[in-house]
Fold these 3 entries.
Entry 1:
Amino acid sequence: MRETSDSASVPRALGRRRFLGLGAAALALPLVSRLSALTSSALAPLPADRDLAFFNTHTAESTAVEYCRSGCLVPASLVKINHILRDTFTGEIKPIDVDLLDLLNTLARKLQTEEPFHVISGYRSPSTNAYLRTHGGGGVAAHSLHLVGKAIDIRVPGVKLRDLYRTAIGLHGGGVGIYPESDFVHVDVGRVRTW
Ligand SMILES: [Zn+2]
């Protein structure tokens, strides 16, 4: 499933008649995004052995795993990652996109840190996302990529939030947003954009 917020916003912004007139252009947008995403990847080359460490700030759980060994995904490690990045409000577990894991692995190497990613939000169920939107969750999108395991909110001990933000932007791997008042950076593997 891909993000649908862009196409969904067109009819509201332009009105139905104008939207119908722009139908072909609107339909072409997702293709353009996908092509630009393909040509802007800064993640390669990835090492054959890849690890990740997380600390869940809501449950105080920690995990450190090698999720890819000799270029092959390690299913038992993915189970651990999916568990620690679950929706901690409802307990729901969904697969986290491996592209996001590779982005985080690259980010950790760029930051030259051995610290775990401190996780504020990983996978988010529809009910939790709706709750956060109606309870002052500024910046919580209706079609958030957290809903499909393609986004994570993080901070890293010993790394300034601004440095984390700039380093993540430099990867051109997707969206990056900074939330200084809540002390975290959002990263996702959707379209490349910043806020
Ligand atoms: Zn987020």
Entry 2:
Amino acid sequence: MADVTATKSVASNENGNKKMKCEAGEGACEDGRIRGLVVLKKKKVTDFTSFTSTVVGVGRGLVDKVMGHELAGKDVSLQFISAVNTDPGNELRGKLGKPVHLEDPVNTSACLAPGELAFSLTHHLDEEIGVPGAFLVKNNHHSEFYLKTVTLEDVPGHGQIHFVCNSWVYPAQHYRIFFANKTYLPSETPAPLSKYREEELENLRGDGTGERQEWERVYDYAYYNDLSEPHKGPKYVRPILGGSTDHPYPRRGRTGRPPTKEDPNVESRLPILQSLSIYVPRDERFSHIKFSDLLAFAVKSVAHFLIPAAEGQFDRTPGEFDNFQEILKIYEGGIKLQKNQFIERIMEDIPSELLRELLRTDSDGFLKFPTPQVIKEDKSAWRTDEEFAREMLAGVDPIVICCLKEFPSKSKLNPENNPDMRVYIEENLGGRTLDEAIEEKKLFILDHYDTLMPFLRGINTTSTKTYATRTLLCLKEDGTLKPLAIELILPHPDGDEFGEISKVHKPAKDGIEGTIWDLAKAYVSVNDSGYHQLISHWLKTHAVIEPFIIATNRQLSVLHPIHKLLHPHFRDTMSINGFARQILISAGGALEMTVFPAKFSLEMSCAAYKDWAFPEQALPADLIKRGMAVEDANSRHGLRLVIEDYPFAVDGLEIWSAIETWVRDYCSFYYKNDEMVQEDTELQSWWKELREEGHGDLKDKPWWPKMQSLDELIQTCTIIIWVASALHAAINFGQYPYGGYLPNRPAMSRRLIPEEGTPEYEELGTNREKALLKTITPQLLSLLGISLVEILSKHSPDEVYLGQRDTPDWTGDEAPLQAFKKFGKRLEEIEQRIIDMNSDGRWRNRVGPVKMPYTLLYPSSEVGLTGKGIPNSISI
Ligand SMILES: [Fe+2]
């Protein structure tokens, strides 16, 4: 691998490169000149942060031409660096070639993406340079540009050499280094490139001081100390997450913003209107046209003016839906958005197509949402017990349900369950004893007690009024689950020393008991949707991945095989997490407004992090831990599912196994034995820093892999890729399809079950729908909530899915390219398997009473709200 052999193949990007090669000129000319092609993007089309100055479509051809001529000439220079000969004056560095400049724009429009420009380039063959392994670029132009690729054609004896850059180049960066798409372990780096490799990592690590600037690329760690706004008063103060035993948390990217005047430990926040400018290393900023870019603005818009404007649009009770029919109006006809001065001003500033996207309005100003899949085929099947239970296996949070291993269920905080639970369960076991049913693995539990109970007293002092819930279910002969009982638990009003108040409810169809059963199911959904958003989604995917991104960029060179393997799975995550800190998870942010734990939201996720364990994020380990699978060498993937028809696990194991095979094929190509893993200095620094800094609050946990063997490396990388791609997709993209219809998945509850003898209690028997709607999320917050989950559930037009890469020439090594192709083929087979299973009536949990096929782990997708598709990374 130390041999610098350039790729001869144009096959990896058959259409693109072949065409570019033709038009850039064929190969080395007789006079010693090597033709090259530089592809870059200009700033404007990709910069979506300024709505008013964005050039969208209109007049783009003209802009291309003007920008093209601006960039050609002396303003941008490249100097190639030898991969074989060192500089006579400095033996640690490869010899530098003479500066060359961008020539005229090349007409290769057929193979360029919108906004891209191509320039020809002439590199003068110089025997002392020999084969270039890197180049240095200087931007003396007045504004930044996005350098995508540089390709040298027909370098004698080597053929084509690709430099995959994908990076913003600013005048303020002085100069930048880019390497050819070769892969080297640190010890195998050609000597002339070693120093450049080290220096580039030093640049990315920075010196840990100062406030980061827009053009910088520094990756560093910080605590979550930027969620509070102390100057607004105690209501806007939250604990610092990370760096303490009480509040352990993964690290976030450091921005270096100054501390607040009120508290030197709290980082000051950007004003709301500048939220989109929060620092993330420049290449982590959304560089493409994404819906994600609109997130902050959309949420802000909804909160600030859509909600007040929509007030009073539903008849009878202000601020309430009266019945389910009324809710359906927001999907069917829409409701009229009242214009006010603010809306009119916004309308003047924002292009109408963006406005429609942001406000979900049609041209007449009607507020309208797409019909969520869960009510598309059947408007009332969501209310059945079967669907309620099915969503624990095939819904948006299928990673909580456990097989009951003993009764009372093991609870850290309270080992005793309510004795009524035993009675209700035994009534429904068809003659089995409870112990027999446990032995046969027929009983399951959805238990939110331990997570919620420490916070419940505090939560119920806010506008939220709710219970901690435990749901017991049994597996029926037809493979579906049936809820047996729901336990609703409250802290004792007189204090914890008096125990707690627990009541068990059993299924009922009619009368007051029927309504109470509906309410009990709603409290379970409320518990689960809060757990889902804050723990399954935010903590267990978004937050835990960020330290891996930071450590990878600080410790693994772009030449390192593991950097090349993981990099696509980190795209846009720091950016979306940065926005989330500004808009969603901050004190008073949209999440606190729309999920029941309110101001305790992030603290609850912090408590859950105490129990997070990296190896348990592997799907097989997770299933075994929850008792949902047992090891069985004779079963597919070595595991036997306790519920055979568990759609998330069935599809998940296929995807997990495909990722693992791909990672094994890839890693085994570079590491021939365990010693090579142990002796890889960058890899060892990466893993040490990840454990000690990135996840530093858990650094002493015994479960961390030691990173001493190839198997540990494979397992680690498989987990990272699984979490960033498939797990996030399964948790994220069903949010609107299931939760866009609030009664199915309410995120809040604002009253407890009414006391017997009160008029509210009597209403339970007379107006069932109203009783539920008076309990769950109120109308206006429902609109905010579904606006948010709609945005979170969409795929952007430039999404890159599992099995795809945005740059075909991401490596020059043929065997990994072939293994990656095999991975893509395997994913296509999995797609077909999912289609087949969804249409096979045997698998009842895959469609359920709502007739909604399980597609959340279907790898590819179209743009928009599709309820399927596994993007490579957490980008929304
Ligand atoms: Fe997400």
Entry 3:
Amino acid sequence: MRDFFTEELEALRKRALDRHLREISSAQGPEVVIAGRHFINFSSNDYLGLANDLRLHEAAASAIDEFGVGAGASRLISGTQSPHLRLERALAKWKGTEAALCFSSGYAAALGTIPALVTKNDVILLDKLCHASLIDGARLSGAVLRVCPHNQLRKLESLLEWARRKHQGNRVLIITESVFSMDGDRAPLRELVELKKRFRALLMLDEAHAIGVIAPKGRGLAAAENVSEQVDVQMGTLSKALGTSGGYICGSHTLIEWLINRARSFIYSTAPPPAIAAAGLAAVDFLASPEGEKRRLLLWERIRLMQQLLPRAGSEAEDAAAPSAIFPLIVGDEKAALDTAAALQSEGFLVPAIRYPTVAKGTARLRITVTATHEAAPIEALCETIERRRR
Ligand SMILES: Cc1ncc(COP(=O)(O)O)c(C=O)c1O
């Protein structure tokens, strides 16, 4: 019998939508090694270069000495160890919220939290460019889901009016991201807060690509816009600028207590390894320190350099300040995006091609990410190479 998956995979290949794993035989950093060759790495979300930082190594190693490798059980059974609680206290303090709860990943945080907040007959208004974890959490909740055109406040306002009219007495949850993962732009957070207050909605904000990058001490967009207290549910992940892994939710004591009782991805999953929580705590401590702030400012120097040098597609405002460390170069066609990524790789640059379904069909792109650990020279070299290939 012909393998069922063979045909499906063939169909994916024909549309240039097949995906493959690539073995990296080194730590994450500004350079990585693939099949014995060094590549300059513009593919990682390790914005501050913490994924291979000695402070995090040491924190993880001493937690292994003290607590071992595995957590043994879910948090509610016997898996809550001191490093988990220390990390949660530090996250809440850093984010300026009453409490925090950690999950094994950002994906798990979204999947567990959204269904705990809303259910059948409630309404979710989700930005069109939200990450898959938020989409999946929203679907899983069973709430009425409306997708709002990206960052369009007028449309959101009319959806809120509709929700309040048609679903009286039910909860309305707005979900969006601080920095959109594949486009690098920001949500209009102050205006969103105004709308959520006017319509008595809840606001959930995924700060995955904003923490460590935006606001003093890298506290994220809610802090930068001074609206932290008005954002009901602040989600994030330790897997990007914080260099480790694990998702979190920050918010009120009652929210966190509710999630401990209702978030299924928290309740029914073994706790993250205590060493990972300890490394996360070291990352939060670093961000809150003067040295961490220096590293974040260095990241912004690199972002500005990339913004200055990167050839643009045309219509974008060249002078506008870059909103984040993510630079999408839209190619359009899926195959063309793959070919461009392969050509860059042959010249020593690792830049991922992002295709459907991660982004909409026909909007395939190269997603370049800058980190504080990139020297100026590789950034210049990448931009020159892209420019040369354009001519
Ligand atoms: C915006 C956004 N939210 C959530 C996640 C999920 O986080 P994690 O990788 O920790 O599961 C990601 C990254 O993958 C992301 O880009």
